[in-house]
Amino acid sequence: MRQDRGMMSSPNWLGRYHNGQREQVWQELRGLGSRVREPDWAYEAQLVCDEMARRARHNVELIVERLSEDGYRFHTNDDERAPVLGHIPPTPAAAAHADWLQQRFDTVPMTLLSWLRIVGDVWLVGTHPRWPASAAADPLVIELEGSRHAGDASIREYVEEEWAEWLDRRTEDPGAAGLFELPVAPDRLHKDNTSGGSPYGIVLPDDCADGLFAWESRMPFVSYLNWVFSNGGFPWPSGEQGQWELKLRLVGDMLPL
Fold it and tell me: What is the pLDDT of residue 253?
């Protein structure tokens, strides 16, 4: 990226993103780091993140539609297996929750805010009639607004509790606390109703365009999403042949982010 303010006055990120230069655009946005918040960059960078979220929502809706047509049962990740919705679009409170996150953590990645305002909550955990082990394939879950949980305040209380616990750990042992990760999903073992590790999350605070998604390692949020969507929403091998047969149907018409 540019080294002075006159080198690139109009990066045309959105136009280039639409024209297929997505990887280059993300590389440039990530390369700016916190400078992406400067007036020269912030507006168009957010447009790219919003377009990413619109494409992600297309992918989510397509996966949920195809799974539903197959008789897939979306359910909780416990013995009860209570039915849930695979996708809940943003509620009217989503924008307020995005504002609260920014106030609470000072800076939140643009991609995270776009997902919250445009995509909504996604829960692909469930069981396919021709693929009993589907929950073992790490189905996509991103719950930021907490729509399927009771009350708007509950998700905020949960975040506050996690944040307070992390602050206590940092006070007791600053070297071992690591970075705070906003929980957004169970890990792949818990999704399959098995004792596992820490939740998947997004590192906060973060003033960059794209966030860091923390699962078994850390990677850019958009890179994680592209990997998941390229596998039809179920990226982990489950050990059953049915997964690969269904993947061919699920990945059709997926939009790269």
Answer: 96
